[in-house]
Structure formats: structure tokens, C-alpha cells
Specification:
The protein has 13 helices and 27 strands. It has 533 residues and is α/β, with parallel strands linked by helices. It has a single domain, classed as FAD/NAD(P)-binding domain (3-Layer(bba) Sandwich). Strand 1, helix 1 and strand 2 form a beta-alpha-beta unit. Helix 1 packs parallel to helix 6 and helix 11 crosses helix 12. It is globular. 54% of the residues are buried. The structure holds flavin-adenine dinucleotide.
Amino acid sequence: MQTYDYIVVGAGSAGAAVAYRLSEDERYRVLLLEAGPDDYRWTRIPVGFAKMSHNPAVNWLYHSEPEPSTNNRQLHVPRGKMLGGSSSLNGLAFVRGQAQDFDTWSQMGNQGWSYDDVLPVFKRMESYEAGGDDAFRGRNGPLRVTNPEPNALLARIIEAAGQVGIRHNPDYNGANQDGIAMSQATIASNRRQSTAHCYLEPARFRPNLRIETNALTENVVLEGKRCTGVRYSVHGQKREARATREVVISAGTINSPQLLELSGIGQPERLQALGIPVRRPLQGVGENLRDHYAPRTRWAVGKRGATYNDSGRGLGLVRQALRYVLSQPSMLNAVAAPLRAFVRSREGLEAPDLLLGWVPMLTELGPKGPFISRQSGMTCYAHPMRPESKGSIHIASANPRDQPAITFNFLSSPVDAELTVTAIRIARSVMTAPAMAPLLVSEIGPGSAVTTDDEILDWVRRVGETTYHPVGTCKMGQDPMAVVDSRLRVHGIEGLRVADASIMPTLTSGNTNAPSIMIGEKAAAMVLQDAAG
Ligand SMILES: Cc1cc2nc3c(=O)[nH]c(=O)nc-3n(C[C@H](O)[C@H](O)[C@H](O)COP(=O)(O)OP(=O)(O)OC[C@H]3O[C@@H](n4cnc5c(N)ncnc54)[C@H](O)[C@@H]3O)c2cc1C
């Protein structure tokens, strides 16, 4: 059996950062296990997300349970399954969240997670190449972040937003999040800046780091109350590895609680029903699931040539490809939603509570994923950033290859429903502001006939989707539903931590890649600190 100091399970946003930092110290031998493959051709080029959103080679392709609150649909739940995890197929927007998000975590009793605590970590992990204030932005980290320029269409939306009181914010990851801005991008030199590229490529030839791909971890090994290693399989062949110091689970919000439950850590009655011996009762495993549920409003654009539907199909696509090759702005190296606004639902709030994101085209969904519509238009999604609705993720069988049951309970909190309606009304106000008039914009969905709150909500329940930010299923805290403590150690088990988006007690105000990488960075620092004694 192979023996390491540390074993990290999952090479995603957080896990890659954990493995990179732990193996910086040459004294420690580190094993990184990843269920998916090493590399995939569409991970490099930013627009590759469209080729991977429904691709089983690199995507777990989960789906949720049908639920009445979302019209009994099964929602598509993509998750990266390769080196870099979801950072290798995500929409490339770089958003840290608000200072208040992390201060809330700290106020919940999680020492070391206030904004003042995490800001140095956010700075350490990035190289921000577009100015910003040194008090907030890092210059020398592994992750390259850029700030693209708006094209004519997006500049017009920024102007329209200004006309309804949403100001332009040059750096929403700086002092304040408020306002409208181009999405900062994990794109640089024409390439996706995944954690596979930024963290693992420079580290993979370190003699003390071994990366095993196509390695599905099936459970952690427990001796009494101590975790001593993992069992995993590679192409069906069973293997075991031993960790003399610690195992860090970074398998993401869906697979981390799955792995704990498969190992006998979770709700006793649930595990017993599936024939899994209970090693550590922990009621919170798989609970507290939070995600962003967003309707995509759709808009026709009458002015020819303004959207990617005109300039990104047929010969236009050839031109876009040429621009990409020449390193000029192109739809091939753009963030999926290149413009976003952080806004308040009402006066007097301390910070924005709604997120709007614009995509400068209409897409349709085919069996192999989304494709560009023939009709010219735009999409604008709109949703509350800190939803109160909570769901769960639990194993449905003792087989590690079976997908867990994902229940979101979206819109179960009336506040979420109310805020979603408000967000749609704000999207409408921007899209119908005077600056948009020359584009000859008209509403397709929900459609101008849909006006009352009830009508809008009915549409939201029928068409909303997740924006792919599930968090919280191994929540950090001290209460009875907490799974890990503030140093990310699993309560009641030695030598086992969880470090990924699943530990977030609440959802951050925005997208979740940046905070997940921060969690990986911080976890590694705590592991090394504890090893130093
Ligand atoms: C389609 C999509 C678009 C998104 N767009 C954005 C965006 O634009 N901006 C943004 O900030 N966020 C975005 N996100 C969210 C963001 O990418 C994730 O929140 C973040 O990557 C989560 O990091 P993680 O480390 O928790 O999990 P992941 O990055 O998902 O990593 C988990 C890793 O563990 C591996 N794994 C799982 N189970 C096992 C096992 N049993 N054995 C071994 N390995 C295992 C997985 O294969 C995966 O590689 C998007 C997500 C998706 C899916």
C-alpha cells in the first residue's frame, strides 16, 4: 500500500489549491486523487464551456429531484469531472463576494473567516492584471484575473443601467461590490485560467506530489475515530492509500457529503437504511444546501449586427475565430455572462442583495448542449444573491457510482420568491431604459403580458435554472448541524478535513469559484500550521 503524509480527494477549485500549497513544502508527500481525466481539449479555450456543459467525458451531469416549487422539473446540475474540477468548465466570471459574507461567517462563530482574515488569502491567490487598489488586489498569485473591455452592446447596457440609478463600478472585487461592471475573468493570454492550469501545471512535476486521475475515491478509511487513508478505484481496479497525517476531502458540494456518508459519517437512520455501518453520527452531513436559482429573461434585438446571434454564426463565427487567434476580443475568449450588476432590492440595505447577469445573445438547448439561436437577442438572468431556501444532498444507495439525490427546495422561502420578482422588474427597467431604444429591444420572456407578481412567479417556477453555485452541505460551525469546525476538521474525527464549497455556512454574494479557491488556500495554510505545531 502507498503511504503519504497527506491525501487530497478531488482536484477542483479548492483541491488543486490545497495540493499545490501542501506540496510546496518538500518534507511532505502528497497524493491528489481525481475521479475525472487529466486533460480535455475544450478546457483551454474559454468558449469551451459550451462544449462541456452536457459532456459526460468531463462532467458529472447530475440532475435534481423533481419538486413542485419548480414545476416538477429535474434541473440540470453540471459539475466538472477532471483536473481543475468545475473551474475547468465554469463560466469564467471572477467574483469574491462581499465583505459582509465573510463577516457573517465569523459572527456565526467561525474564527479566522472574517473579511479581514480572508482578504489576504484572496490577494495571495491572484495576479490581477487590470489595475485596482493594492489594498484589495493581489499581483503575484498563481491565478491570473483580467478585466475585459465592453463591446458596443454591453457599453450601451452600462449606460442604460446608469439611467435607472445603477452606477458603473470599476472594481466590484475592491472596496465595494455595488454597481454594474464587466465580469472580471479567469481568462488571460487567450486561455482559461482553471486551477488545473494555474495550480497543477506548475506543481505536477514536484517529486513529492503524485496526481492520480480517473481515480474514484469510494470511502475514507477510519480506525476508531481517526482517518488513516482512502479506498479508491482506477478503471474498476481497487486500491488503497494511507495518510500518516491527514486526508482532505475536496470533492465539491455534491460529492463531499456523498463520500462522508459512504464512509459511515452522517445521519444514522439514513446510513443504516442503506446498510452502511455508522462510524460517526453527524446530522448536518448533506443538509444546508444552498444555490442560486435564476430565471433567464429573454430579449429580441431588432438592430442588425449588435448581438452574437448576428456576428457569431456562419461566416461571423469564422471572423470571431480569427479575432481569437489574433488575441483580439472575441466571443471565443469571453466570460459566459460578460456583464453583471450587483444591486439593492430596496433603499437602505447595507449592501446589494440581487445579481443581474447579461449574455449578449440568445441560445437554445439541444441534446448536446446549448447552441446559438437564429433570432438576434440577449439574455439577462436575475436572482437574489443570499437565498434563504435550503435543500439537501444525500446518497440514495451504497454504490459510490450512483448519483446522490439532490433536493433544492428553491423558492421555499417567500423572501426568495419576492426578491426574484424584484430582480426581474429591475432587469426590465434596465432593458427598457432610453439608452436601449436604438437597439429596438423587445421582451420575449417572460413577455410584456406577464405583469403581476403572481404571473411573474409562475413563469419563474416554470423556467428558472440553477446558476451552478451549490454550497453548504458540509457546513462549517459549532452548532449541532455543523459538519466541520472553523479549521475545517470533521467534528469527532481526527485526521480528516473538508475543504471546498461545501463548507460555506451561507452562500456568498456572487459566483463561487473565487471563494472556493480561497477556501482551498486557507485550508492548506491551516493544515501546515497544525503540522508545525
Ligand atoms: C457550468 C458551471 C458554470 C459556473 N460558472 C461560474 C463562474 O462563471 N464563476 C464562478 O465563480 N463560479 C462558477 N461556477 C461555480 C464554481 O466553478 C464552483 O463553485 C467551484 O468550482 C467549486 O469548487 P469545489 O472545489 O468546491 O468543487 P469542484 O471544482 O467541482 O471540484 C471537485 C472535484 O472533485 C472531484 N471528485 C468528486 N468526487 C470525487 C471522488 N469520489 N473521488 C475523486 N475525485 C472526486 C471532481 O471530479 C472535481 O474535480 C460554475 C459552475 C458550473 C458547474
